[in-house]
């Protein structure tokens, strides 16, 4: 039997004040096409369906259309859990009413105890257990168990599930957590501070497959069958070289058989370009992917008047500019960048570019005095 | 066949900064008990399920539990439309997936065209058409029809529905609108300004029953079978004498048979008490309903120090105090209240109450000068 493992859709996410909804719509279209052409027994979403507990209406509409097509038209069941970005109770409304239609939203610990069982020739009965995103406080309160860390909470919940495994069933777990030792990206929201959010993969070894969500880079942890599918698309520039998409999982009569990455490609990729302005402007003219979302690192050593306006003429979706050429390293202790050039030099560059001529001696003295005055005021 | 017509639940509503959720929970408990003891073929909610388009989580949970019990345990279908307070798209998520379980959320014009058909021995096939709350702009945009008023919009939508009536079917309409000539209350949010929100009942005469929502007072309009059930409970003090609850509707082979009001009573009633403070304090000591939500109108002619504190000792849920005894009428043009007594008289009252003695001549002069100074400053 085959199912698709996905996670971290983050529908409705904004990136540098740009809505990613059109990109998300396109990626979901690719997903629907894939399932239409390559039928699977289930689609899994291991948390963070939405980017916020109160998602924008347009994100809800997109999710609704996707669900209507996959469950309604393709008759493919969807099994999902809320992640740390989702509002579990908001997402869970009507879960009981939706179940028979093939949409399984597992948002409470009660629902966690009743797996979704799918029967196939190849793997017999496969029980999908959804562990909704949780923290130690929630588990301590709900079960009156003295757990104080994410690790203990997940160990406790996993043992509750494994103790009720049915003989002969294959068992799949959905969980939204941070596996100890796994690799994080820049676009995840920390679950807690200082490493206390880490969970050992050992607790999950009894399952035939563990479909993880939270970390945005596809990866396995500890075992071949304990995996993050990674996010639907890139959500930070530092993910520029990560593969994004879905994990196609195959189970057979022995349990886990294989996991294969299936690419999904957002129309706008997120990437970083580092060069001098003139080189970037030249390159942009022939760049087939000039509509990508860009972080531009200008290596020029002189000040440039309104570089964003210039860049956007060839790369319309430059979202952020950094100027490493203008910095002498980074002051590590303070995390502050110090300007390599003085204010007067900077103003000279600006004046040259704006007026196409150098400052006269008189102008130079005047601006020098103004800057001194301002600097003095600032210090006072 | 019998069904219950309700509307304007407004789950999650606040009243003078007090959450009404516990009252709503109790009223819904009474509703569930009623249905459990007196089975009906459907429960209708004619809009304003929630008080806001983004309802608080606790309101969603209460709705979820209510739906689980009525649809899940009692197997009674629920048919509902969004009102002007609801977010139609937010409320409509998963509607397609819920339908088979008996929860029918009709939140789009497409869904409006497919009635929920319930068949009974007494009345044959009954088609329930839900007209989601709409305004002329929405209808004009969606259907490219040149409607400019609520009346035209509803006339157009009603004619679309009546034109597809099936022969032999009984037809019920759910609509959330303001019937021309009907009585409004203080707790409805206007649909538009200046009377352009009124809809003629004539457009709806072809239906066998019209289950209306929006106006909070139970009433019929034009025909016995065109009715507002009124809100679930009182939502303003001026509704103190209104009956609140549900309308039990009976249809038979001839169509409309009867409509009966079924009382639902919130644990805290909303009411107005008007008297002098001392009388109210005496009455409160033996008032069996001293926990009601109260608007107190003090008729005392002198200033009283902290009347709220005194009142709440006997009536803990006084939510608002008015002091008509302290006012000389209302300046009609400005809508402003003018104090009957001067500042010095007021201070005398205050001092007497706080210190149990009159102002000395010296004190009286001092305060008089202070007040003069302040009044002068204020004028400048």
From TrEMBL, chains A, B:
The keyword Hydrolase applies. Gene3D superfamilies: 3.60.21.10. It holds the Pfam family Metallophos. One of its GO terms (molecular function) is 3'-5' exonuclease activity. Signal peptide: none annotated. InterPro entries: Calcineurin-like_PHP, DNA_Repair-Maintenance_Comp, Metallo-depent_PP-like, Mre11_N, SbcD, SbcD_C. GO terms for biological process: DNA recombination; DNA replication. SbcCD cleaves DNA hairpin structures. These structures can inhibit DNA replication and are intermediates in certain DNA recombination reactions. The complex acts as a 3'->5' double strand exonuclease that can open hairpins. It also has a 5' single-strand endonuclease activity. Belongs to the SbcD family. Heterodimer of SbcC and SbcD. This is Nuclease SbcCD subunit D. It comes from Vibrio amylolyticus. The lineage of its organism: Bacteria, Pseudomonadati, Pseudomonadota, Gammaproteobacteria, Vibrionales.
């Amino acid at each position: 039997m085959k199912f698709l493992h996905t996670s971290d859709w983050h529908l409705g996410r904004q990136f540098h004040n740009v809505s990613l909804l059109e990109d998300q719509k396109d990626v979901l279209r690719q997903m629907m096409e894939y399932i239409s052409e390559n039928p699977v027994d289930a689609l899994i979403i291991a948390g963070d369906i939405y980017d916020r507990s109160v998602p924008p209406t347009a994100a809800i509409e997109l999710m609704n259309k996707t669900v209507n097509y996959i469950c309604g038209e393709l008759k493919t069941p969807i099994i999902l859990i809320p992640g740390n970005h989702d509002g579990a109770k908001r997402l869970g409304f009507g879960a009981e009413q939706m179940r028979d239609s093939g949409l399984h939203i597992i948002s409470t610990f009660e629902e966690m105890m009743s797996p979704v069982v799918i029967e196939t020739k190849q793997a017999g009965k496969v029980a999908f257990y959804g562990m909704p995103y949780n923290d130690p406080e929630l588990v301590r309160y709900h079960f009156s168990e003295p757990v104080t860390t994410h690790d203990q909470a997940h160990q406790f919940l996993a043992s509750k599930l494994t103790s009720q495994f049915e003989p002969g069933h294959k068992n799949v777990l959905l969980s939204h957590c941070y596996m100890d030792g796994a690799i994080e990206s820049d676009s995840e929201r920390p679950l807690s501070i200082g490493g206390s959010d880490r969970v050992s993969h050992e607790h999950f070894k009894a399952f035939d497959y563990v479909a993880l969500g939270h970390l945005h880079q596809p990866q396995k942890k500890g075992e071949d069958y304990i995996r993050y599918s990674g996010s639907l698309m890139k959500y930070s520039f530092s993910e520029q070289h990560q593969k994004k998409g879905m994990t196609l999982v195959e189970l057979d009569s022995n349990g886990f058989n294989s996991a294969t990455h299936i690419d999904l490609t957002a129309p706008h990729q997120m990437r970083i370009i580092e060069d001098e302005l003139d080189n970037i402007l030249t390159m942009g003219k022939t760049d087939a992917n000039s509509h990508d979302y860009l972080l531009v690192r200008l290596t020029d050593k002189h000040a440039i008047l309104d570089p964003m306006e210039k860049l956007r003429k060839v790369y319309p979706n430059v979202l952020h500019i950094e100027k490493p050429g203008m910095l002498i390293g980074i002051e590590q202790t303070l995390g502050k960048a110090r300007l390599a050039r003085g204010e007067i030099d900077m103003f000279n560059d600006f004046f040259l570019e704006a007026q196409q001529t150098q400052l006269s001696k008189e102008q130079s003295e005047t601006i020098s005095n103004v800057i001194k005055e301002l600097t003095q005021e600032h210090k006072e």
